[in-house]
Specification:
The protein is mainly alpha-helical.
């Protein structure tokens, strides 16, 4: 009986002692945690400076060290993921953006995850990531515009149109207007396509793709002089855009500018890479018919 009572007193005393020991260590533990967070912030700041100097591998190491010191801070894996994006290591980037978005569901982290998924060719996953971003931030221009482009690539033109029109309502962008022009071109809505492409050019008259796409629209509308003009403007901005040479040659041949058409076909044939072999064979066939004076629409 006495032993039992004595044992109870011992355990009671040990419990009180343990309680005070924990309380006694709490300020030290709290102080250590704060120190780690401060060190993590310093590592992160160093990483940002290195990133701005385009030293992505060194910045990546700094962000990793920051994340090790403070694993609950979502900013650090996100920043490391951005380094992987710059290094074209998209799989590693996706892992870190997933980690960041699990810690804190910021629209930016879902947007960046969409970039990484796009890089590895996971279009559907990227679409879901961008949808998550705009759900949390309805006025997120970058996410809407990239979502629209991916939906276009997928062939979902109605949803792509909605996304791109939303982006267009948020910000004046020659890129978005160009995408809308291409979308309407694919739908056969040539007048709407023309309006959007002209708007793109009004926002940036140095963007060669808008001129090329407008040339395609005018060619389909059988406005051949306008098509020729836009293909030439495209090539004036980018002499290496080979599709413009090919289409320009087709237009020039059709409107009777035979010598100009020959020259355009010759430039295309000379510059075209092996991947365009089929188009090169077609161009050679058309060029030969021009040289023989027997050209007709093939």
């Amino acid at each position: 009986m006495q032993v039992k009572q004595y044992s109870q007193k011992i355990f009671s005393y040990l419990g009180v002692l343990l309680f005070f020991c924990v309380l006694g260590n709490a300020p030290a533990l709290f102080s250590e945690s704060k120190a780690k967070q401060k060190l993590a912030q310093q590592k992160n700041q160093r990483g940002v400076r290195l990133y701005q100097l385009n030293r992505y591998a060194a910045a990546l190491n700094a962000f990793r060290e920051a994340s090790e010191k403070d694993p609950k801070n979502a900013e650090y894996p996100n920043n490391a993921g951005m380094c992987y994006l710059q290094l074209s290591r998209y799989r590693e980037a996706a892992v870190l953006f997933q980690k960041a978005s699990k810690i804190k569901q910021l629209p930016l982290y879902y947007h960046n995850l969409g970039l990484a998924y796009t890089g590895v060719g996971k279009g559907n996953a990227a679409i879901q990531a961008y949808q998550a971003a705009v759900k949390r931030k309805p006025k997120y221009f970058d996410a809407w515009s990239r979502l629209g482009l991916l939906l276009m690539r997928k062939g979902d033109l109605p949803q792509a149109e909605k996304a791109l029109l939303k982006a267009s309502s948020l910000k004046r962008s020659y890129d978005v207007e160009n995408f809308l022009g291409v979308l309407y071109l694919q739908q056969g809505k040539l007048q709407q396509a023309k309006v959007k492409l002209q708007r793109s050019i009004s926002l940036n008259d140095k963007f060669y793709m808008s001129y090329y796409n407008l040339g395609v629209v005018e060619q389909k509308r059988n406005k051949l002089l306008a098509a020729e003009k836009n293909y030439k403007k495209c090539l004036g901005l980018n002499r290496e855009y080979l599709y413009a040479y090919y289409n320009l040659a087709l237009v020039q041949a059709k409107i009777g500018r035979r010598e100009s058409a020959k020259k355009s076909f010759q430039i295309f044939i000379k510059k075209a890479p092996p991947s365009m072999e089929r188009m090169v064979l077609e161009a050679k066939k058309r060029l030969q018919s021009l040289q023989e004076g027997k050209y007709k629409e093939l």
